[in-house]
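Quick one:
INPUT:
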């Protein structure tokens, strides 16, 4: 993990994300790309009036000064931090900036149950979390050690989720305990025990070429996927939830509708998503 991008809106939640990124950066000797989207009226970007240019430069200078003050944190000491101020109101560009700089991870802060903080609302949340080609880690509270000792990878074990699973393994320390999870829900996607076990075996064979992790697969039944994941994470004392995402098509198979956003908002622990 060489580069971590952190969108900054000067809230305490983006500070939580920045501190989480700092912990990861120290563990992996990574660079942090601190990104602030400078919100200005559309007219300032498109105006041909020369008088508007000094006004735009003035606001840009103020933002840069505030940004420098925000980045003056003790936990960033010894870390290579690159500040980026982008003149845009569209936070969907976060993933684009990450791709341009070849970032390995996006770390964002969240209110939790109340939804994403300030700039991360509505469609912007979906565009960053659901559409990003880069893995996204969402932080809800001030991190301590940010230990990922017990991690859940929730999936339907389809073949298209193999790539996300392999990316997830690379993000974890070798000492981490990973619990694979399949949530069986009522309805047309309901599967028998033998069907779930066969699907998990096929998945692991495709992903790793063996069944060594078959004993780490957990099958739970619940009224919704979200409830199943949250209940299981509480049961095992998980430190992190990992999910495959399918971009514009929604989350893979049973991760449809608003499951990703609901889980991100309602889970108290960090959630990391991977595009498939």
């Amino acid at each position: 993990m060489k580069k971590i991008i952190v969108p900054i809106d000067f809230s305490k939640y983006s500070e939580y994300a920045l501190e989480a990124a700092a912990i990861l950066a120290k563990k992996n000797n990574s660079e942090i790309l601190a990104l602030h989207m400078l919100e200005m009226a559309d007219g300032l970007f498109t105006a041909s009036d020369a008088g508007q240019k000094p006004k735009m430069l003035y606001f840009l200078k103020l933002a840069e000064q505030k940004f420098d003050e925000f980045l003056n944190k003790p936990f960033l000491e010894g870390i290579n931090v690159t500040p980026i101020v982008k003149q845009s109101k569209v936070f969907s560009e976060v993933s684009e900036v990450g791709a341009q700089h070849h970032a390995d991870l996006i770390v964002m802060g969240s209110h939790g149950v109340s939804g994403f903080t300030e700039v991360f609302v509505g469609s912007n949340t979906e565009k960053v979390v659901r559409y990003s080609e880069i893995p996204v880690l969402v932080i809800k509270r001030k991190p301590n050690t940010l230990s990922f000792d017990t991690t859940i990878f929730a999936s339907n074990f389809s073949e298209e989720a193999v790539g996300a699973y392999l990316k997830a393994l690379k993000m974890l320390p070798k000492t981490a305990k990973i619990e694979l999870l399949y949530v069986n829900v009522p309805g047309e996607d309901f599967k028998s025990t033998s069907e779930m076990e066969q699907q998990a075996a096929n998945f692991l064979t495709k992903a790793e070429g063996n069944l060594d992790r078959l004993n780490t697969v957990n099958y739970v039944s619940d009224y919704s996927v979200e409830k199943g994941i949250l209940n299981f994470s509480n049961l095992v004392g998980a430190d992190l939830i990992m999910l495959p995402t399918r971009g514009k098509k929604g989350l893979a198979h049973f991760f449809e509708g608003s499951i990703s956003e609901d889980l991100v908002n309602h889970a108290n622990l960090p959630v990391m998503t991977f595009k498939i």
